[in-house]
Design a protein that fits this description.
This protein has two domains: 280 residues, Aminopeptidase (3-Layer(aba) Sandwich); 113 residues, Alpha-Beta Plaits. Helix 3 packs across helix 12, helix 8 packs antiparallel against helix 9 and helix 10 crosses helix 12. The strands form three sheets. Strands 1, 2, 3, 4, 5, 6, 13, 14 and 15 form a nine-stranded mixed sheet that branches. With 406 residues, it is of the alpha/beta class. It binds zinc ion. The site of zinc ion has 5 residues, from loops.
Length: 406
């Protein structure tokens, strides 16, 4: 038997802190919005660290960065995540998974461990989607779900194309990612409160829930708020509110269903005018595709009901639609067993947020490991995962990778 290879905890923790200096915000947190100068600085540092570990670095045309430690075969076990952040992000979302991957490599180097298969650490472009939509764009392109031309022509809110920014920061590469991926493991902070609440040290992620985003435009008729009797109004605002509350009540019966009305704007937005129009968004999520379809049917029925009751007309536009992605059952079991072998408590959960792993799951068996987020906070400068949890997750990642490379 081999002696168990352990991660170097101090190195991991100091690597995470020092990387957090790139794009650091006053008062904590980081801003490395995709393809900005800060993102470039982060990429430069990542490439430097990869090369220092002896990895062969390849950058593909959408700017995904792959660092590979050669094994006897070119088939590779991949791990990774992203280093871009939201405008007021924390040190751990995404970056933790990438730097933990580098710690795995460093630990194997220290142990002079030669593996049968190669190991690749990846950092995917524009995972957050704060600047360019859709999110998870780099992994989506890598998985063949979007053309490089379409991705490059995506514009940010200032009208700048992703392609122009990629060229400007020097990360439109000519390389490519691995061709044969044996399995993909992504380590990530939970970004929610479940693990902490249930005192679970390692979250074994069973999949990513499905997402359905719709923009609705409710059109009525503006009128004087004082002179127009209620019966003669076509109130777009009231109709929209009723739509959201009524749908929300209906969906209480759909298991695990989430509904969010995150944007709600009335026109003309004046105190004494019956709204002529209301533009709102609905975010529906469910881990089960059949249930998500049922929720979407409820939405369609509610729209018809509201049109009839209020005399408004309602247009819909789909902004995003991703089916739930179940992860590989063998990898799920393996992560769970390896975590327990280390003496860590485990629990299974479905990811509420999207992750690069759901795109890579199109190419290879994939799974994710979650570690607790203090107070469930993420996309927040106060985002925190405790050192012991960071180390536990990285050790499980190392063990999972080792279980796949021989
Ligand atoms: Zn993330």
């Amino acid at each position: 038997m081999f002696e168990k290879i352990l991660i170097n905890q101090d190195r991991l923790l100091s690597d995470i802190q020092s990387f957090g200096q790139i794009g650091a915000l006053e008062g904590g947190g980081v801003a490395r919005l995709a393809l900005t100068d800060n993102d470039r600085l982060g990429r430069d540092e990542l490439v430097r660290r990869m090369k220092a570990l002896g990895l062969r670095v390849s950058i593909d045309p959408i700017g995904n960065i792959f660092g590979t430690r050669a094994g006897k075969t070119t088939a590779t076990v991949m791990t990774g995540s992203h280093i871009d952040t939201v405008l007021t992000g924390g040190l751990y979302d995404g970056t933790y998974g990438v730097l933990a991957g580098l710690e795995v490599i460093a630990a194997l180097n220290d142990a002079r461990c030669m593996t049968e298969h190669s190991i690749t650490v990846a950092a995917f472009t524009n995972e957050e989607g704060s600047r360019f939509q859709p999110d998870m764009l780099g992994s989506l392109v890598f998985a063949g779900g979007m053309s490089i031309e379409a991705a490059r022509s995506t514009r940010d809110s200032a009208g700048v194309t992703l392609g122009a920014e990629l060229d400007r920061i020097g990360y439109a590469g000519t390389g490519h990612g691995p061709e044969k991926i044996i399995s993909y493991y992504e380590l990530h902070i939970e970004q929610g409160p479940v693990l902490e609440d249930e005192k679970i040290q390692i979250g074994v992620v069973t999949g990513v829930q499905g997402i359905s985003w719709t923009r609705l435009t409710v059109t009525g008729r503006s009128a004087h708020a004082g002179t127009t009797p209620m019966r003669s109004r076509v109130d777009a605002g009231l109709a929209a509110m009723e739509l959201v509350t009524s749908l929300s009540a209906t969906l209480k019966d759909v298991p695990d269903q989430l509904i969010t009305c995150g944007s709600f704007r009335v026109v003309p937005d004046l105190v004494n005018v019956v709204p002529q129009r209301c533009v709102l968004t609905l975010d529906l999520r469910n881990p089960d595709e059949k249930l998500l379809l049922r929720a979407e049917e409820c939405l369609s029925q509610t729209i018809l009901d509201i049109e009839t009751t209020y005399g408004v007309s309602i247009q819909t536009e789909t902004l995003a639609r991703f089916e739930p992605v179940p992860f590989d059952s063998c990898l799920i079991d393996r992560i769970e067993n390896l975590a327990r072998d280390n003496g860590y408590s485990t629990g299974r959960l479905c990811s509420g947020a999207g992750h690069d792993a759901q795109m890579i799951a199109r190419l290879a068996p994939a799974a994710m490991i979650f570690v607790p987020s203090v107070n469930g906070l993420s996309h927040n400068i106060a985002e925190l995962t405790l050192p012991d949890d960071l180390c536990r997750g990285t050790q499980v990642l190392l063990d999972a990778i080792l279980s796949s490379v021989f």
